[in-house]
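Margin note: ligand = coenzyme A.
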Amino acid sequence: MIAAEQAIPTTMLSKILPTTVVAVEQTGVFTGTLLDEEAALLGPNVVPLRRAEFAAGRTCAREALRVLGFAGQPVLRGENRQPLWPNGVVGSITHCDGYCAAAVARADDMLTIGIDAEKNQSLPEHVLEAIAFGEELEWLRRSPQNGICWDKLLFSMKEAVYKAWYPRERRWLDFDQVGIAPDVEENTFQARISGTFSSPVLSGQIYRGRYLVAQSLILTAVCIPTAAVATRRDGIDASRPNPLSI
Ligand SMILES: CC(C)(COP(=O)(O)OP(=O)(O)OC[C@H]1O[C@@H](n2cnc3c(N)ncnc32)[C@H](O)[C@@H]1OP(=O)(O)O)[C@@H](O)C(=O)NCCC(=O)NCCS
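Resulting structure:
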């Protein structure tokens, strides 16, 4: 449960997150501070822009943790840059030019979370061919001309999936191992991870994520509730496709 006396911040990101997830965001010029343990992760020679985004992300993360009932805890860093959360918490951090956010939840509620933010601008030349495959290229060709940069949205969906995946699996994912199928009516997407991995929970399943395009930004989120996984383990849903959805 979220600490009773805390108001849950309303953010753009919270529109695409379940109510058990606390999101804190910054827009415009980044502000923020680092705890000593967090500053030590950067070292002395880091460029100011990187320090600013790192501090903004950590500040959002600590504020979200405070709301969740874990005040004053540093957010350290794992072997492959993933944020390390206090015991009993899962979460994710993102930043892009002019936007930064963190989302956290209790591990009792969420198995894992991945969030991503990108500017609503097309991918640089030749990036698309490295990140989109098969049916993804088909739906990109069919996508409506409505101001949404669908190529960047696809990229963001895959980044959100990776950020949800990595902290549990501790393994790299290639872009062609994540197949994305969007539902543009619902502003959702399904992601299937292919390949042989140790985790029967995350690999081979279909995850559902959500997206929002607003204020020149693309926001994506993948949240896997523990309840969805428990249902699958109990076999209740075993004969049907298993969208692990928010
Ligand atoms: C890690 C990665 C996903 C970050 O995405 P990005 O769009 O460059 O940057 P964002 O600002 O959105 O996210 C950066 C934050 O993600 C988090 N992050 C970094 N590595 C992570 C990982 N392995 N797992 C989970 N979260 C991670 C960090 O909090 C980081 O911010 P910080 O360094 O200030 O703490 C990206 O740089 C990357 O390495 N991608 C390659 C892996 C990949 O995408 N594979 C294919 C996916 S299908």
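The CA atoms of residues 42 and 51 lie 7 Å apart.
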